Amino acid sequence: MKKLFRIWMLAAAAFGAGACEVEYEPIVVLPDATLENSGMVNVPSITIYQNDVYTVNMVRTEGLSRAASFDVAVDEALVEEYNQLNGAALKLMPESCYSIEATELSFPEKAKETGFPVRFKPAAIVAMAGSAAAAENYVIPIVCTPKDAVNSAEKYLNTMIYFSFEEPTVTVDAPAALQVLSFIKGVPVEQKLELTGTANFTTLETAELTVDATQAMVDDYNAKNGTDYELLPARFYTVDRGTFDIETRSFRYEIAFAASEADPDKTFLLPLSIVSSAYKVVQGNMFYAKVNAQEIQLTVSDTDRYAAATTLSYEADIDVRLNGMLMDDIDVEFTYEPSLVAAYNSAHGKSYERFDPSKVKIDPVTLEAGRVKVTATAVADMSAEPFESGKEYLLPFVLNTSKLPQGTLMMSDDVVYLRLKRTLCGRWSNLNTSDNNYLSRVSGIDGWVNDNWMRSTTLPSGTNVDGVAFPYVNCYYTWDRGFHWRICDESYDGDPKKRKVQMFSRASGYSAERDQLAAMIDHGSYFDMETGRVFFDVQYYYNDSDKASGKLTTVKCYLISPLTVDAF
């Protein structure tokens, strides 16, 4: 204690000058270790593991300035004491079921923690106990006795290791949705699916798992779903031996299907479940694959469609889909045929106009072998078509069926009728579709925001100011509380692809439309005909009081097209 006292006195003397009115905490140096017992420590393991290891960690909280050494021993007295205090019936782990290689434990200088491994044999422990539950009564009581002085009420470190044992469990991640595979009759193209899952242990042997498929599983599916599928014959599929990744504890099976020779008049089902006598298997969903073989079938999507053409160049995607994979490429070629307009009008009681063939383009595409879908894009140059005309055009595109494989069955019309209306009247869209949340904003363009506050439905109206019509009306609020705007004839900023936008607001306190227009300060609102976006950049005075005080309400946002319009 003299040494400690002298250190404290020297420290106090160092601060003595000019510090008479300040009290300092004494400096205390504790060179001896303060010990922190671990108590009961649970070690989880798997019942089938032959060997496992746990690192026992010991901690000291003080006395880090020097090294410290401890003797390591197993002390059955800890078990007896615990049982007496807690009314428990723990047992000392038999020596044949574990090993502690360390007889001494050392804390290096400045180290707060140190440890040593305990190796144990889960399978042997469970076998000796007779069950996993009984095996959890075995404990390993470890006492670490210091070889040097300690600064603790407890004069040794102790920990009592007890074990919890889990059954080896395999969890199958089968998809909930029915997997559908279609094959072309006589075309031997293989298709593959995967069955995956995870394990709660690292020693999974896929040889201990069986991928099962039975007629009873098919019967159960048919009964529940009102179907009459048949079990897919084993010759039409193979399941590999499976692989297991020890790091992720995940397994994977690949199922290869080659069913091009299956009976085309039947629909087959392959139900798969995993079973095992070695592991517990949890499979929430049955794996179902529906398989059929058909003649070559080709479908063209959306063969009679309509849209508002709001940009200088209108593009329409035409999807062409097969019912299965082929081994060869298919040339998909559409031709624009305006001569079909008259027949369509006659059949439907319409009066659509032809569109200039020189302004229509649709390039041929290739449906590649091994793929089931390709998209052709029709492009119509609308740059010379005025928006104000409201003209309605019909553009027929005919599929060249002579390019298709012999025997191909068309499952749709081979003519696509594209009806285009040159208009700005319809329901405008934007990137955020939450109609009622006007505060919802998303990233915009160059400081602009695409905002539901300006989400609009545009309708023709008789509104005018001093004889100037405002035919396109923002009706986000109501007629009385919305924004009215129109696209003018004159270009914006000298750009022929942009046109000025003029607007006034019924959301202001002015009742007369002329006064509302006069209250607007436009900073460059415009319609970009190339992209179909309408940009609003205005400020307005809500009333005379705001105008007198210079208080402005700002609108800086945009709407995007295409418009959605009713069928015409």
Helix content: 10-25%
Count helical runs.
8
How is the biggest beta sheet arranged? 11 strands, mixed
Uncertain stretches: 1-20, 24-30, 432-444
Range of strand content: 35-45%
User: How many extended strands?
Assistant: 45
Distance between the termini: 102 Å
Cα-atom radius of gyration: 40 Å
What is the 3D shape?
flat
Structural class: mainly beta
List keywords for this structure.
568 residues, mainly beta, 11-stranded mixed beta sheet, 6-stranded mixed beta sheet, 8 helices, 12% helix, 43% strand
Describe the structure.
There is one protein chain. It is built from eight helices and 45 strands. A hairpin with a 4-residue loop joins strand 17 and strand 18. It is mainly β. Helices cover about 10% and strands about 45% of the residues. The model is unreliable at about 1-20, about 25-30 and about 430-445 (pLDDT under 50). The strands form nine sheets. Strands 33, 34, 35, 36, 39, 40, 41, 42, 43, 44 and 45 form an eleven-stranded mixed beta sheet that branches.
In a nutshell, what does this entry contain?
The protein has eight helices and 45 strands. The chain is mainly beta.
What is the strand and helix layout of this fold?
Layout: H1 2-14, E1 34-36, E2 39-46, E3 52-62, E4 68-74, H2 76-86, E5 91-92, E6 98-100, E7 104-107, E8 113-120, H3 122-129, H4 132-135, E9 138-146, E10 157-166, E11 169-172, E12 179-184, E13 191-199, E14 210-212, H5 215-225, E15 230-231, E16 237-239, E17 243-245, E18 250-257, E19 268-275, E20 280-283, E21 287-294, E22 297-300, E23 304-308, E24 313-322, E25 330-332, E26 334-336, H6 341-348, E27 360-362, E28 365-367, E29 373-381, E30 392-399, E31 409-410, E32 415-421, E33 426-429, E34 441-442, E35 449-451, E36 457-458, E37 464-465, E38 468-469, E39 472-473, E40 483-492, E41 495-505, H7 513-518, E42 520-522, E43 526-528, E44 533-540, H8 544-549, E45 553-564
Parallel strand pairs: 2-10, 5-9, 11-20, 12-21, 15-19, 22-31, 23-32, 35-45
Antiparallel strand pairs: 1-3, 3-8, 4-7, 4-9, 6-8, 9-10, 11-13, 13-18, 14-19, 16-18, 17-18, 19-21, 22-24, 24-29, 25-28, 26-30, 27-29, 30-32, 33-36, 33-45, 34-35, 37-38, 39-40, 40-41, 41-43, 42-44, 43-44, 44-45
